[in-house]
């Protein structure tokens, strides 16, 4: 189990960013350091076994516990970031800017290449870190 993140400061909040219904499972997963998918599966099993109690408890938590939103958007590693690959379109080019346009396009292409390179390195790193071999090496280094 992982430690409680410093952002929660030891308090339980519903997670509005990862909420499906009310954010209760997402908040519990964050607070307790559990996997969100496992928490939702356990909540569904509890719902099937103890339906009236779980429904009342869930609704009570939705109405009594405040929701917290970090205000940050999560960027998936497979997607490009906000600035990578996006170029600014201009309708008119001023005569003063006409001299700078080739330099700007070179700079934009250089930035695009850097972003592609970083995406590729991140993909390789993600593949390595999520591999079974990496997990085995981590376990062996802890011994």
Sketch the topology as an H/E string, one letter per element: EHHHEHHH
Number of strands: 2
Mean pLDDT across all amino acids? 76
What share of residues is helical? 55-70%
Q: Into how many domains do the coordinates divide?
A: 2
Residue ranges: pLDDT <50 for 5 or more in a row? 1-8, 72-82, 87-91
Class from secondary-structure proportions: mainly alpha
Which overall shape is indicated by the principal axes computed on the Cα atoms? flat
Q: Strand order, main sheet: write it out.
A: 1-2
What's the end-to-end separation, in Å? 19 Å
Largest beta sheet, briefly?
2 strands, parallel
The portion of residues forming beta strands comes to: under 5%
What is the overall number of helices?
Answer: 6
Supply Rg: 23 Å
Describe the structure using short key phrases.
mainly alpha; 143 residues; two-stranded parallel ribbon; 2 strands; flat
Overview of the molecule:
57% of the residues lie in helices and 3% in strands. The chain is mainly alpha-helical and 143 residues long. It has two domains: 14-68, no CATH class; 95-142. A two-stranded parallel sheet has the order 1-2. The protein is flat and about 65 Å long. Mean pLDDT is 76; it is low at 1-8, 72-82 and 87-91.
């Amino acid at each position: 189990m992982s430690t409680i993140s410093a952002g929660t400061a030891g308090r339980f909040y519903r997670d509005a960013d990862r909420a499906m219904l009310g954010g209760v499972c997402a908040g519990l997963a964050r607070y307790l350091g559990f996997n969100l998918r496992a928490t939702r599966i356990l909540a569904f099993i509890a719902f099937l076994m103890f339906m009236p109690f779980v429904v009342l408890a869930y609704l009570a938590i939705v109405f009594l516990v405040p929701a917290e939103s970090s205000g940050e958007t999560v960027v998936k590693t497979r997607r490009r970031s906000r600035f990578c690959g996006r170029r600014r379109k201009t309708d008119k080019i001023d005569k003063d800017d006409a001299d700078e346009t080739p330099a700007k396009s070179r700079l934009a292409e250089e930035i695009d290449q850097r972003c592609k390179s970083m995406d590729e390195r991140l993909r390789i790193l993600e593949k390595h870190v999520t591999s079974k071999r990496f997990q085995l090496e981590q376990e062996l280094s802890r011994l």
